[in-house]
């Protein structure tokens, strides 16, 4: 488990230089074209496929955020031959699925890595992709509706799906994954916590960064879709019948403050991830479920602006926890012998 504190770079003390390029401060990205249908609210575009609302927008700014999140995950596993997933599916998987694919970046990279596999990504909103490898298929659908894919998958992947489902829906999703994998196939999920942490006391207790995570988690709880998948997914996957459950813990630094090169790089990109993501992560939640009363759009803008300022303070050595879980669907012989053992125990 990666529970060692990340060592601070003592030479980083000003918000100037290569890690804080000027243009990071002007991330007022324009809303994309109106070709895609969707619901506009508070200046952001949301999916309209599902009757139930999904709290994060599907717009250019969010797609940029997903791309940055993808890079953070890749950098932190960059020493691995395959930084995209850890499930041991062998060199020749046939069918791979990415649930809630977002911009489709993971699915596209996996399709590039396994040109003989068919890699599907599914999402509520069409990803803005101009080119895709021929073996990658991005589809618009609700993962909670009936699955119509005919071929069983070698691997089903999900990343940052917190807030997408309530508890019974999560159960349904894991069961669907189980039912749609080949025997011996793998499920893999990566989640990050919205809570911002710090190991050396450099983040003031009174800072917004310090309270943001718990506050947004409370709002999501009121909405009925919690943001705690990082801590629940392993048990839920096990409960769904998967075996061989593995976990890998990560610290995703926020900002270029670490001394180690890999962490510095990851923190630099994660800083960008937060700058472009924060407004979209909280606008819907705070204007619907803020307490004691729902916030106005303007209040959210002020809040986000204050957070941005804090994020840019290099003396705060912040990070968020992330976790990867991968597990296997048992083979028929394992199921049969498990059943036999239960029968023996009952005698
Ligand atoms: C936070 S994004 C993560 C995107 C991508 N997995 C990544 O890591 O870059 C979660 C995605 O799940 C999608 N999503 C949420 N509920 C869904 C559902 N019921 N069916 C399909 N996609 C869903 C959202 O539209 C969103 O694009």
UniProtKB/TrEMBL annotation:
One of its GO terms (molecular function) is methyltransferase activity. It comes from the Eukaryota. This is S-adenosyl-L-methionine-dependent methyltransferase.
């Amino acid at each position: 488990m990666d529970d060692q504190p990340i060592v601070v770079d003592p030479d980083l003390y000003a918000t100037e230089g290569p890690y804080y390029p000027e243009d990071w401060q002007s991330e007022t990205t324009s809303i994309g074209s109106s070709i895609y249908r969707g619901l506009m609210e508070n200046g952001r575009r949301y999916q309209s496929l599902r009757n139930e609302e999904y709290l994060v927008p599907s717009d250019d700014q969010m797609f940029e955020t997903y791309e940055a999140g993808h890079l953070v995950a890749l950098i932190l596993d960059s020493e691995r031959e395959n930084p995209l997933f850890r499930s041991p599916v062998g060199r020749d998987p046939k069918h791979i699925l990415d649930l809630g694919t977002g911009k489709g970046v993971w699915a596209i990279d996996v399709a590039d890595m396994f040109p003989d596999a068919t890699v599907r990504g599914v999402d509520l909103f069409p990803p803005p992709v101009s080119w895709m490898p021929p073996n990658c298929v991005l589809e618009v659908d609700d993962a909670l509706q009936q699955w119509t894919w005919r071929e069983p998958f070698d691997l089903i992947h999900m990343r940052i799906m917190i807030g997408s489902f309530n508890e019974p829906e999560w159960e349904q999703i894991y069961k669907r994954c189980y039912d749609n994998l080949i025997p011996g196939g793998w499920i893999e999920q990566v989640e990050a916590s919205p809570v911002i942490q710090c190991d050396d006391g450099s983040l003031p207790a009174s800072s917004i960064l310090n309270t943001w995570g718990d506050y947004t988690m409370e709002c999501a709880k009121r909405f009925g879709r919690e943001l705690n998948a990082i801590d629940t997914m392993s048990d839920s996957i096990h409960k769904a019948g998967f075996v061989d459950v593995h976990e890998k813990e990560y610290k995703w630094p926020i900002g270029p403050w670490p001394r180690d090169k890999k962490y510095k790089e990851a923190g630099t990109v994660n800083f960008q991830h937060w700058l472009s993501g924060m407004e979209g992560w909280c606008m819907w939640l705070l204007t619907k479920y803020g307490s004691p009363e729902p916030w106005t759009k303007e209040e959210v803008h002020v809040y986000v602006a204050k957070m941005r300022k804090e994020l840019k303070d290099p003396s705060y050595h912040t990070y968020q926890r992330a976790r990867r879980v991968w597990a296997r669907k048992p083979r028929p012989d394992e199921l049969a012998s498990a059943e036999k053992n239960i029968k023996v125990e009952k005698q």
